[in-house]
Amino acid sequence: MKMIIAIIQDEDAGEVISCLNDAEFQVTRLATKGGFLHSGNTTLLTGVADEKVDEVLKIIEDNSKARTQYATLPSSCGAMHGFILAPIEVKVGGATVFVLDVEQFHKF
Predict the structure, then answer these.
(1) pTM, 2 dp
(2) Coil, strand or helix: which one is 104?
(3) 65: which DSSP letter?
(4) Chain-wide mean pLDDT for the chain?
(5) How far is 23 from 19, CA to CA, in rounded Å?
């Protein structure tokens, strides 16, 4: 058995969860926050049989879209007082996924 931990952008969470549920995978959703842009993320937890890992990864990949966003660095990042920094283009979205071995699983 494996535990899949997927960190995805909030914007993609509903579709990913819906597709996983349609494929009969149970998912636990946690609200999380990213470090660099301080944007909302969703962390999904699901336990699956070893032979189902590729199916779950495909669903996550197909429904987690990378996109471009513009952001300005906070003034605490070295901006000089009185100067406005130009927005920078950053890539957001997609998914960061961890697949872990599970020694035991219990459902009560």
Answers:
(1) 0.77
(2) coil
(3) -
(4) 84
(5) 6
